[in-house]
Q: What sequence folds into this?
């Protein structure tokens, strides 16, 4: 190799490899990256909150899967398995703490994201359905928090769930049924624990992942919203 | 001559950085997934003190070899039992009261051999192995 600056021929891209010729993923990604995001959306951190919530969701999935290596959703073993994760498993305390704090961060970031959308009027047509899916995602996030809170099966979890499910009773007409559905019986018991576990690790993640996908596709279709009085190209 | 160009230098820096990042993620991950040795797998006996110090109708609290709180009771002269002290309902510590074991939180009651009498507990208390040696009480592992 010489000290000379690389010539033009050295800079041309290599011919596409076997996988690229078959699937063309790199080309597809490049095409996706061609959309120009308005300057205000890349400059102001208030526009990052949606992407950061998606990132925290990904972290939750990863750390949650790791926690399931040791967590046991039964009355007898739930608490002691969490204790085991915190005291015996190497980096167990770290994984559980990441899961705990990112859960809080997830909700906070979604609320900040929502605040920005409200303030810049991003919910207005043609983006009203994006708003609806975003709101559903917030509800799913809350349900994640509510179901996950029971899983350590300690006193605070037990009573929080007792009070929380009790609220369901005041829903008109179906309140009693809803309470039974949530608790899996009359009282908060081992049946509640398994129900909440299934909700937390199977049902909610599937719906959330799908809805995030829909949410993102909608953003790709409509583009990001512009602030009031925004004139394209003025600030660049 | 094969000089290190700036491009090559930066490339190798990037490569080293990526390697470091992979290591920082992989090291805790592999350690986490590796099953730790469970302290409960050791089968030693725990000294629960001399028999003479545990009068009939009294109780004594110790930690089992698995780090589980255990209550040792002596309902009769010739009977000594060791039971888990944690109520299976929500983990409060049961205590001896009027010849029964009572959970102070929600009132679950157990006999002195661990059988559930009443209350919200889903099951009775687990028994632990007990043996006597040189006038001392020893508590072993959980009975199957």
A:
């Amino acid at each position: 190799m010489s000290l000379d600056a690389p010539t033009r021929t050295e800079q041309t891209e290599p011919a596409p490899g076997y996988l690229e010729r078959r699937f063309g993923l790199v080309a597809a990604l490049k095409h996706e990256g061609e959309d120009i995001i308005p300057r205000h959306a890349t400059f102001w951190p208030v526009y990052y909150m949606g992407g950061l919530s998606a990132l925290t969701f990904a972290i939750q999935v990863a750390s949650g899967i790791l926690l399931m290596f040791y967590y046991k959703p039964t009355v007898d073993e739930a608490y002691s398995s969490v204790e085991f994760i915190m005291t015996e498993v190497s980096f167990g305390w770290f994984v559980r703490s990441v899961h705990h704090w990112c859960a809080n961060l997830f909700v906070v970031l979604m609320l900040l994201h929502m605040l920005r959308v409200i303030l810049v009027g991003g919910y207005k047509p043609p983006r009203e359905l994006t708003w609806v899916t975003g709101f559903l995602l917030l509800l799913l996030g809350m349900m994640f928090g509510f179901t996950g809170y029971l899983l350590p099966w300690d006193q605070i979890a037990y009573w929080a769930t007792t009070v929380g499910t009790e609220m369901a009773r005041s829903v008109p007409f179906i309140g009693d049924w809803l309470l039974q559905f949530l608790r899996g019986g009359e009282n908060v018991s081992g049946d509640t624990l398994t129900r909440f576990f299934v909700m937390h690790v199977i049902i909610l993640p599937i719906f959330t992942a799908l809805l995030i996908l829909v949410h993102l596709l909608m953003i790709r279709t409509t583009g990001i919203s512009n602030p009031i009085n925004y004139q394209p190209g003025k600030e660049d | 001559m094969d000089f290190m160009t700036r491009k090559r230098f930066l490339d190798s820096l990037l490569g080293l950085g990526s390697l470091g990042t992979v290591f920082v993620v992989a090291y805790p991950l592999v350690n986490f997934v590796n099953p730790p040795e469970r302290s409960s797998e050791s089968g030693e006996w725990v000294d629960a003190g001399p028999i003479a110090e545990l009068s009939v109708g009294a109780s004594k609290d110790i930690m089992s070899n698995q780090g589980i709180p255990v209550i040792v009771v002596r309902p009769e002269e010739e009977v000594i039992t060791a039971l888990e002290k944690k109520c299976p309902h929500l983990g409060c510590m049961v205590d001896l009261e009027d010849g029964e074991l009572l959970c102070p939180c929600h009132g679950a009651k157990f006999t002195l051999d661990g059988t559930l009498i009443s209350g919200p507990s889903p099951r009775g208390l687990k028994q632990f192995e007990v043996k006597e040696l040189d006038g001392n009480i020893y508590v072993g592992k959980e009975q199957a």
Residues 42-222 of chain A form a domain with the Cytochrome Bc1 Complex; Chain C fold (CATH 1.20.810.10). The radius of gyration of chain A is 24 Å. DSSP finds eleven helices and no strands in chain A.
